[in-house]
Every structure is written in structure tokens, then in C-alpha cells.
Amino acid sequence: MPLFGVEATFWALLSPFVAAALSPILAKTLKHNASWILAVIPALAFLQFLSFVPGIAEGQTFKASLEWVPTFNVNFSIYLDGLSVLFALLISGIGTLIVLYAGGYLKNHENFGQFLSFLFLFMGAMLGVVVADNIITLFVYWELTSITSFLLIGFDHLRRSSRRSAIQALVVTGGGGLALMAGLLLAGFAGGSFEMSELINSGDVLRESPYYTAIFILVLLGAFTKSAQFPFHFWLPNAMEAPTPVSAYLHSATMVKAGVYLLMRMHPVLGDTELWMTVLPIFGGLTLLVGTILGLRQTDLKLVLAYSTVASLGLLVMLTGTSDPIAIQGAVAYLFAHSLFKGSLFMVVGTVDHEAGTRDLNRVGGLFFAMPITAIAAVLSALSMAGILPLIGFVAKEVLYDGTWHIVNGGLWTAVAVLGNAMMFAMAATVAWKPFFGTKVKTPKQAHEGSILLIAGAVTLAVLGLLAGIFVASVGHQLLSPMTSAVLGIPFDEEMHLIPTYLSPALYLSMTTFALGILVFMYMDKLRALIADALRVIGWGPDKGFDQTLDLIIRFGTTLTQAIQTGSMVTYMRATFSVIALMLFIPMILTGNWPVLEGLGSLYAYEWFITAIVVIGVYAVLTARYRVTAIVLLGIQGFAVALIYLLFGAPDLSFTQFMVETLSVVILALVMTRLNLKPTDARSLRGKVFDISLSVLCGAGISMLLMSVVQLPFDATLSEFFTQYSRSVAHGRNIVNVILVDFRGFDTIGEISVVMVTGLAVLALIRVRPKSNGTSNTEKNR
């Protein structure tokens, strides 16, 4: 059973947000030592998730739910299986180490508390993504990861490059999030449930749905943008503008793997189709090659690791797209291995930068004796990244080769995997060999070993990578097989071995990878120059395209604003009434539902009298010489409408209309007396014809709309509701009063507020006296 029960998981999800609130306070008083106290919070969450492992290894799943928005069937529900628990362990476990690392890396930073607050918010968002059962809840957390990553990437906001990278990450991942929202809603409606646990157990419901293609494309957009798949890969390396603790956390266990998590989560209901097994391997394989090729040309150690992360994410997507059980097992093992070695390597690079003053490959070398513990962590992690025995990375590589070798078109995907892994082998050697064992170079700072806060995380993850490889059978049974089962949607427990039991194709492929990797590493400088020349010839890339797209959007917005916001009231009125006319007539034209035009029939004398008042009033307005006169005459129409309300049994509505019309006329007239308006019309003949036509269209449209409404069968549901409940619920005999005071209480308050504000405006206008300039207002503004 879980350590504190399933319900305690809600507190584990809430705890990072509590830590976010405490961080500024503790950091202000304890400085960097606050990391030791705050790290306890994610550590406790780690223990809570760890307590689920024995049950999940036996095939159990755990659910809990709290009502959130019951009206819309949105619950704060959680679902814990092999997939969500392993992700939660990585997020909380590595998060604990990152909090400690941040205390050493940002020691004495003036905004250290703010940084920790952002980091904990990000941690809480990621935990919510992986354990959320309700897809609406999942989406809320998903978007929160984009917002918090924006804050972290742009933490050093005084630098323009940081601000640009943060905006780029937010725009790309936020745009994908909008597509994902539509995809999740479609999936919920098509699958008949908004609970992920029910959705992934719905069999072929989504695959057989006519909306499958739309759901697939929308979900892929969300996943590809979040996990930096080509052509959206450019934002992730640019995110290296963030402090190294962010880079280590973002790349190893959190945001960039959210897209992979989503694809794995949706695999039982969207996977194993021709579309899935075509699109995902193509884009994943392309991302793998693009990431490794671009990474080889880098000399900044963080960028080398960043592009290797892009490549690794491509490999994970490619393997997930095969839908082969062994390949999926390889993806799960590689995801676990990648989290360990990539988190460690980023912290190693950050420590080198912090203690040596640079992370440029051309300016570091021979640091082993100055930083021996950091060097050992780097070597162990790089060996795992390269896929060398006995690290967990070796086992993952063997399994994924075995998976790709036996599938349809497996030769192609195996070749892509081998080529990509060979280049990552060379990148791993670059990060671990040159800084510590290369030719000694004088660094900007006198290099020395980092503090315990800086080295603890890197060493811990590196050693865990070694232990996970040695005890891979146990790790596979407890963690990796349950996750594979969750991804496949069926039980799976294929035993994993550190030492190959026979000479399989996977072993030969591993040997080929090593040979190619050594060859690439030997000619790294020449390859770097060759790739740089090729990119210089190509010139344009997605990163530049992002800037061009943003510039195009800004230019379009500026042009549109200048065209619409002309400062002319005439233009605004024409645009407004043109839209009204279109809204009135387009539905009737498209549907063909025109009202039946009936004759006037026999009208009473007083009805003819009111009609005559309206006609005379309209004529008087149109022929008025002065605007103030026209405004006063315009009130005739409102008073005529008020008379109609009165004659047809609505005295309260009639009184309201009299008040509103009177106030409108008074205010407009007072405003006009403050302006120097000449009795001229600057409109051209064409403009007058257009305005007349537009007014006739709007009037005719409103008339036909009203006729359509009154020709519909009368629905007495609302009347019956008020009649039935006015006495029993609101305890009032006068139904109109009950509606105004109880059923429409807030609306009535709003109306009273409007009348009050209007009255104050009238009072203010009356009390304002214009300065005398020798010309009376009467003569000037008649």
C-alpha cells in the first residue's frame, strides 16, 4: 500500500506550490542554505510516489478524485500506473537534487528566492501533467508548464537573448497547447469520457472514430512543440539562456519529456495505426539526425547537451511510433537512462562553468586533478550516454536495437538509430573527455572542485545510472516493465539483462555504433567545420523563420490597425453597422429562413397615431439643420416606443424607456453644447448614398429578425418557471418584482448603477460652465 494512502498524493501535488510560496521568505533569511530545507518537500513527494512501486509492479493501478467544477464534469482526479509513477519519481527525485544544486549555483544571487519559487511552480505543474486523470486538468497543468518555463528561461530578464528565448519557448509551446486543447476535447467527446483512465481503456473507439485524424494531428502538434520535434526543435537549444539548474531540470526529467509522455499515454487508443506508425517514426528519426548533426558543430558544452537532448527526444518519438513492444520497452529504458545521465551531465557542465569561468570547449581542458569528483561523475554519465557496459544506457541501446531490427522497415529505422547513437557517442566523449582529460588550458578562473551542493546531484545521478545497469533485472521488473505495460495498454514483463545472453544483431549493432562513434570523435574538428560551412550555405532555418513570422504578424497587425483605427467616427460607425447588417442577413441567406411578410391588417386609431409620430419624427431628424436639434427630435422615436410598451401592458418597461430616452437626449445635448459644431456635412454624395443604404439594410434586417421571432411558436417554459417558483422560492406575490429583485438581482443592480452613473454625469455636465469668448453657445451650436 502507498506510504500515506492514495489521497495523500493530492498533498504531494500541492507541496511544490507551498514550497513556491515559502521560497522567497526562507531565501531572504537563510540565503542559499534554504535549499537544504526546501529540498525536503520534493523528497517527501518522491517517497510518496515511491511507495506505489510495489503495487504497480504487481499490475495494480491507483485512482482518486476530488470535485472541482462538477457543473462541467471537471474533476481534480489522479491516475497512477507504471507510466505516471516513473515520471513522477523522476520529476520529484531529480527535482530534489536540482533544488540543492541551485543553492550552490546561485549562491548569493539577489533573486535566489524568486528563482526557487519559479522552479517549484514548474515542478508542481509537471507533476500535475503526469498524474492528472481528467484531461481538462491535464491541459491546465500543461499550459502552466509553458508559463513557468517562460519565467525560468527568462529569469535573467536584463539580457535581450534571455527575453527572446523565453518568448520563443512560450509562443511555440503555447501555440501547440492550443492545438492540444482542441485534440483533447475531441478525444473526450469521441471517447465518451474526459477521464484519461477510461479513455485509454476504451479500445478502438478513437481509432474507429471519424475524428481520429483530427485528434491525431492536434495531439501531435501539442506533443511535437513541447518535445521539440522537427521543425519545432529550435526553441529548446535557445532555452539554454536559462541558468544551468533550469537546463538540467528541463532537459532531464520535465518539460521536454512532456510531449513524449503524452504520446506514450495516448498510445493505447491512438497508436498501432498506419498513420501513427508512419508519421511518428519519420519525424522522430528526422529530429534524431538533425539534433545530432547540429550538436556536433557546437563548442558550447551546454549547447552540445541541448542538441543531444533534441536528438534523444527524436529517438523516443521514433521508437514510440513503431508500436512494437520491444521497441517501446527500449524507449522506456532509454527515457529512464537519459533522465539520469543528462541531468548529471548538465550539472557537471554547470559546475565547470561556475568554478572554471567558462564552458567553451576551446577554453577548458585538463581539469581532472582540479575537479576529480566532477570528472568521475562526467565519465560515468557520458559512458551511459554513449551506451557502454555496465551503465543503464547500454541496456537501453541493446533493447531498442532489438526492437527496431524485427519490425517492418526495421532496417531503415535501425540505421537511423545507429547513426544517431554514433554521433551521440561522439558528443558524450566531447563533453567528458576534453574538459577533464584534454590538453590543459588556462581558464578564466582558477578551477577547483565545487561545493557539496554543486556535486551532490551530478554524482548521485551518475551512480544511479551505474547501479541501474548492474541491477537492471530488478529495475526492469519494478519500474520499466510496468511503464511499458502502461504504454502498450497490455501486460508486459520481458526480463532485461545486463550481459547479452547470446550474439544477437543488437550486440553487433552496438559494436558498429562504438566504431562509428570513435571515428566521428576522431574527426570532430573537421566535421564541425564541414557542418558549419553547410549551414552557412543553407542560411535560412526554423529559428530565423520564427523571427520572420513574428515580424510578419507585427507588420500585419500594425497595417490592420492603421487601416481600421483611422480616428474617424464616421469610419467606426460604418464598420459597426456593416458588421450588424452582415450578421442579420447572412444567416437568413445561408439557411433560407426568411420571415413571412404579413400585411398591416386593421390598426386601431391610437396605433395609427403612434405610427404617424414615428414617421414624422424620422422625417424631422433627417431634415434637421443642426445636430442638437436632430438629437432632441431623435427622442421622439424613443418616446413612441415607450408608448407602445405602455399600450401593450408593460408600464414598468415603458417607464424605463422614458427614463433612458430622456437621459440620453439630455446627455447628448449637453455634450453637443460643449463642442463647436458647424452645421455642415463633409460627406461626399457616394458616402451619403452608402450611409443611407446601410441604414436601410440594418433597419430591414432588424425588422425581419423581429418578425421571425414573433412567428415562432411561443415557448412558455420561462413564464411557467417564474409563475411556479416566485411564491415558493422567492416568497413574493408580484412576479415582476420577484424577477427584478431575486432572479435578476445582479442585473437589476447593474441597471441601477448605470442610471446612477448617468445621473452623476448629467449633474456634472450641468454644473460645468463654459468660458465666455464673446459668442453665445446658442448662436454657435444651435
From TrEMBL:
Membrane-related topology note: Multi-pass membrane protein
PANTHER family: NA(+)/H(+) ANTIPORTER SUBUNIT, NA(+)_H(+) ANTIPORTER SUBUNIT A
Domain called MrpA C-terminal/MbhD: residue spans: 613-675
Positions in coiled-coil regions: none
Subcellular locations according to the entry: Cell membrane; Membrane
Annotated source species: Pseudovibrio axinellae
Keywords, comma-separated and alphabetical: Antiport, Cell membrane, Ion transport, Membrane, Transmembrane, Transmembrane helix, Transport
Residue ranges annotated for the MrpA C-terminal/MbhE domain, each copy included: 689-780
Gene Ontology MF, one: antiporter activity
Biological process annotations from GO: monoatomic ion transport
GO CC term, one of those recorded: plasma membrane
Protein name listed in UniProt: Na(+)/H(+) antiporter subunit A
InterPro entries with a match to the protein in the record: CPA3_Na-H_Antiporter_A, MrpA_C/MbhD, MrpA_C/MbhE, ND/Mrp_TM, Nuo/plastoQ_OxRdtase_6_NuoJ, Proton_antipo_N
Positions of the NADH-Ubiquinone oxidoreductase (complex I) chain 5 N-terminal domain: 70-115
Membrane-spanning residues: 6-27, 34-56, 76-103, 115-132, 138-155, 167-189, 209-225, 246-264, 276-296, 303-320, 326-352, 364-392, 412-433, 453-475, 506-524, 575-597, 603-622, 629-648, 654-677, 689-710, 748-766
